[in-house]
C-alpha cells in the first residue's frame, strides 16, 4: 500500500472527544476486552467499581491512541495501476518513544473500506491486538517488497489462530523473531480453517503496511523509521512451540530440497539459546568510567573500520566536516558492545562524564585524534581525523553483538531519507562508448558496475594507452604533444567540425585537449553521477545518467508585491518536500504547500513557502548534507542586470 511516498498534509491536534470516539471504535472493531466491574453490594462499592472501570477504559484508550495524537489527510497510489487512494493518518507518541504513525484509515479510492488499520508501531505496543501468523525469513523479504503472503508461505500451522478469518486484519512475523510482528495485512481467505498449506495455491494475506514502507519511515521530524525489536512480550502464549517449529522447519525437506543444518541457521540457534540466560540475570549497571572507555574505544573502532573497508578512498570514505549527530549515530552507536536493550539504556552520551557530544568531541581533540571547530550557534564539528594515530593503527577489534550495517545495506528495507546531520559525497563518473573499447577501456557490459570511471581514471587510462604505443606517439621534444595515430584520428576525432579537421591536418594534438575531448563529448564518454552516503561505495549504488541535478530555489513575485520561495529537486538528495515544508512552516512562521512540480516528472514535487527564505532553506539543506554548490538560487524579484546568487 505504501511502497510510494504518500503526500501528507499538515498535522492537526485531535480533539479529546474525537480521540475517545475513535479509540472506542477501535475497541469495538478489534473486540478488545474491557474489564467489567464485579457485582456491587453497597453504594460505595458501586462508585469504586465505576471508577475502576473508567480508569481501565482510559488506560486502554491511551494505549491505542495516546493523548497527544494528531491527525492529517494523505493521498497516495496503490496497486499495479496506481489507483489514487485518500485517507487519514493518526500520529502519536507512546512513552519513551518517537512520534510515529500509529493508525491509518483508507477512505477514498479503489479497495478502501473506511476501517482503521494499525501500523507495526501500534502492534509493538499492543500485543494480541490482531491474530498473529508466521512465515519464513525468505518470504518476509518478499513481503517487504510489496508481495502478498501466499498460502504455502504460512508456517507454524495448521491450526492457525481462530480470528484469522476472511477480511480480518492480521499481523505476520518472521519465524526467527516469532514474537515481533512486522507486517500488517488483511486475510483474503479463511486462514483459520486451513487444514494444510503445502501444495495449496492461492493468496492468504494482502499487505497494507509493513516495516520498511513509506508510512513506517515517515515522522514529523524527518527521522528515519525505527527498526523492530528483537523480542516482545505478550504476543506468544507458549513460545516453546514456536522454537520447536523453527527446529522442524530447518531440518525438513521441502520438495526434494534439503536445508543443511548450520547453513540455514547462520548462528540463530546460538542466539536463541543464549538470550534466555541473559534475560534471567539482571544487568549490572556499568560505572561512568566504563561507559567513557566504551565510547572512546567505539570511536577508535569506527576509525579502524573505515580504514579497513575503504583503504583506497580519500579520507577512507569519511566526508568532512562531521556533524555531532553523525558522530553518535554512525561512529559510536554501531560499535558499542551492547547485547541487550537493558545495556543500551546505560551506554548513552548523557551517562558519560562528558554528558554531551560537544564535550566528547573536545576530548577527542585533546587526545589529538581529531581537529574540531566551534561554529556559530555553539555547535562543534570535526574538521579532520588522524587515521594514522598509533591507537587506531594498533587497534584490536572486539566482537560486536550486532555487526555494524552500512546504510547502503539497509536501503532495501528503509527508504533513503536525508536526516539532519547526514552527509553526501557526489561522484562524477563516465561510461565509455564502444568506440573506445578495447583500446582505452575493457569491453564491459553497460550494466557492469565496473564500467564507470572517474575523470582521474579516464586520464590514467589515456596516459597508459599513450605510453604503450609502438612506435611512440608522444613527442620527444614536448611530452604534452601527441602525434595522431589511426585510433585517435578515426575514433576520437571523427567529427567533421573545423576544429577536428584542423587537428587532423596538423597531425598533432595536446594531451590536455585530448583528455578534454574524451570527457566532454558524450558520444565518447557518457556523463553519470552517483550520490554516496557514508560507508557507501560505487558498488552499493547505481549511477544515474547525466550531470548531478541541482536543487532549484526560485524567488519570485506573485500578485504584485507578494514574494514566494519555490523549491524543486529535493528528491535527488532524499529530502522529503513535505517534511521540509513542515519545518519551514514552524521556523519561518509562513504558510507552505507541496504540489506536483509543473513540467517535471510525475512524483517530482515543488515546495512553496510564502516570503523570501533563501538563507533559511540553504541552511536547512546544508544541515541535511546538501552543499551550497548543489543549490541554484534564482532571484526573479530583482530588476534585469542585478541578478541573484
Your description of this structure?
There is one protein chain. By secondary structure, the protein is of the alpha+beta class. Helices cover 30% and strands 21% of the residues. The chain is built from 18 helices and 26 strands. Strands 1, 2, 3, 4, 5 and 6 form a six-stranded antiparallel beta sheet that branches. Strands 8-12-11-10-7-9 form a six-stranded mixed beta sheet. A five-stranded mixed beta sheet has the order 24-25-23-22-26, covered by helices on one side. Helix 8 packs across helix 9. The model is unreliable at 238-281 and 402-416 (pLDDT under 50).
Quick synopsis:
The protein is α+β, with helices and mostly antiparallel strands and 645 residues long. It folds into 5 domains: 7-237, Sulfate adenylyltransferase, CATH 3.10.400.20; 240-280, no CATH class; 288-410, no CATH class; 427-529, SWIB/MDM2 domain (MDM2); 546-635, 2-Layer Sandwich (Translation Initiation Factor Eif1), CATH 3.30.780. Helix content is 30%, strand content 21%.
List keywords for this structure.
single chain, 645 residues, Sulfate adenylyltransferase, 5 domains, 6-stranded antiparallel beta sheet, 6-stranded mixed beta sheet, 18 helices, 21% strand, SUI1, eIF2D_SUI1, Translation machinery-associated protein 22
Amino acid at each position: 500500500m505504501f511502497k510510494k511516498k504518500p503526500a501528507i498534509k499538515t498535522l492537526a491536534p485531535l480533539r479529546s472527544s474525537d480521540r475517545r470516539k475513535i479509540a472506542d471504535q477501535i475497541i469495538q472493531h478489534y473486540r478488545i476486552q474491557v474489564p467489567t466491574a464485579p457485582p456491587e453490594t453497597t453504594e460505595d462499592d458501586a462508585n469504586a467499581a465505576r471508577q475502576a472501570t473508567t480508569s481501565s477504559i482510559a488506560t486502554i484508550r491511551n494505549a491505542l491512541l495516546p493523548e497527544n495524537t494528531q491527525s492529517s489527510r494523505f493521498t497516495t497510489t496503490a496497486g499495479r495501476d496506481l489507483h489514487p487512494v485518500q485517507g487519514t493518518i493518526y500520529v502519536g507518541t507512546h512513552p519513551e518513544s518517537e512520534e510515529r504513525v500509529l493508525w491509518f484509515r483508507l477512505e477514498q479510492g479503489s479497495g478502501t473500506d473506511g476501517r482503521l488499520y494499525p501500523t507495526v508501531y501500534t502492534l509493538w505496543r499492543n500485543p494480541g491486538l490482531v491474530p498473529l501468523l508466521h512465515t519464513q525469513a525468505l518470504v518476509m523479504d518478499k513481503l517487504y517488497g510489496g508481495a502478498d503472503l501466499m498460502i504455502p508461505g504460512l508456517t507454524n500451522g495448521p491450526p492457525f489462530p481462530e480470528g484469522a478469518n476472511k477480511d480480518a486484519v492480521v499481523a505476520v512475523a518472521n519465524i526467527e523473531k516469532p514474537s515481533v510482528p512486522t507486517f500488517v495485512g488483511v486475510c483474503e481467505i479463511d486462514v483459520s480453517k486451513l487444514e494444510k498449506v503445502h501444495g495449496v495455491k492461492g493468496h492468504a494475506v494482502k499487505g497494507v503496511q509493513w516495516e520498511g514502507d513509506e508510512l513506517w519511515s515517515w515522522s514529523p521530524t524527518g527521522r528515519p523509521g525505527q527498526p523492530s525489536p528483537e523480542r516482545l512480550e505478550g504476543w506468544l502464549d507458549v513460545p516453546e512451540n514456536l522454537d520447536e517449529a523453527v527446529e522442524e522447519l530447518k531440518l525438513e525437506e521441502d520438495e526434494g530440497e534439503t536445508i543443511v543444518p548450520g547453513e540455514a541457521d547462520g548462528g540463530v540457534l546460538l542466539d536463541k539459546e543464549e538470550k534466555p540466560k541473559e534475560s534471567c540475570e539482571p544487568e549490572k549497571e556499568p560505572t561512568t568510567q566504563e561507559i567513557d572507555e566504551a565510547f572512546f574505544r567505539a570511536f577508535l573502532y569506527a576509525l579502524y573500520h573505515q580504514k579497513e573497508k575503504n583503504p583506497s578512498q580519500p579520507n577512507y570514505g569519511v566526508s568532512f566536516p562531521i556533524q555531532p549527530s553523525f558522530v553518535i549515530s554512525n561512529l559510536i552507536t554501531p560499535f558499542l558492545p551492547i547485547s541487550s536493550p537493558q545495556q543500551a539504556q546505560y551506554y548513552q552520551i548523557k551517562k558519560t562524564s562528558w554528558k554531551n557530544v560537544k564535550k566528547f568531541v573536545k576530548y577527542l581533540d585533546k587526545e589529538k585524534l581529531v581537529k574540531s571547530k566551534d561554529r556559530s550557534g555553539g555547535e562543534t564539528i570535526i574538521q579532520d581525523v588522524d587515521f594514522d594515530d598509533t591507537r587506531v593503527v594498533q587497534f584490536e577489534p572486539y566482537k560486536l553483538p550486532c555487526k555494524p550495517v552500512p546504510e547502503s545495506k539497509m536501503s532495501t528495507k528503509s527508504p533513503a531519507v536525508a536526516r539532519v546531520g547526514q552527509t553526501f559525497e557526489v561522484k562524477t563518473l563516465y561510461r565509455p562508448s564502444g568506440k573506445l573499447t578495447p583500446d582505452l577501456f575493457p569491453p564491459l557490459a553497460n550494466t557492469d558496475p565496473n564500467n564507470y570511471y572517474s575523470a582521474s581514471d579516464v586520464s590514467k587510462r589515456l596516459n597508459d594507452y599513450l605510453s604503450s604505443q609502438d612506435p611512440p606517439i608522444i613527442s620527444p621534444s614536448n611530452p604534452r604533444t601527441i602525434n595522431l595515430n589511426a585510433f585517435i584520428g578515426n575514433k576520437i576525432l571523427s567529427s567533421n567540425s573545423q576544429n577536428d579537421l584542423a587537428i587532423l591536418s596538423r597531425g598533432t594534438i595536446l594531451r590536455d585537449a585530448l583528455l578534454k575531448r574524451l570527457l566532454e563529448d558524450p558520444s565518447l564518454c557518457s556523463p553519470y553521477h552517483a550520490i554516496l552516503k557514508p560507508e557507501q561505495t560505487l558498488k552499493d549504488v547505481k549511477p544515474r545518467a547525466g550531470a548531478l541535478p541541482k536543487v532549484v530555489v526560485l524567488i519570485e513575485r506573485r500578485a504584485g508585491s507578494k514574494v514566494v520561495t519555490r523549491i524543486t529537486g529535493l528528491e535527488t538528495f532524499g529530502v522529503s518536500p513535505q517534511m521540509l515544508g513542515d519545518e519551514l512552516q514552524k521556523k519561518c512562521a509562513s504558510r507552505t504547500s507541496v504540489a506536483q512540480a509543473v513540467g517535471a516528472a510525475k512524483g517530482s514535487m515543488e515546495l512553496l513557502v510564502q516570503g523570501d527564505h533563501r538563507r533559511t532553506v540553504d541552511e536547512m539543506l546544508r544541515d541535511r548534507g546538501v552543499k551550497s554548490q548543489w543549490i541554484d538560487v534564482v532571484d526573479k524579484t530583482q530588476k534585469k542586470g542585478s541578478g541573484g546568487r
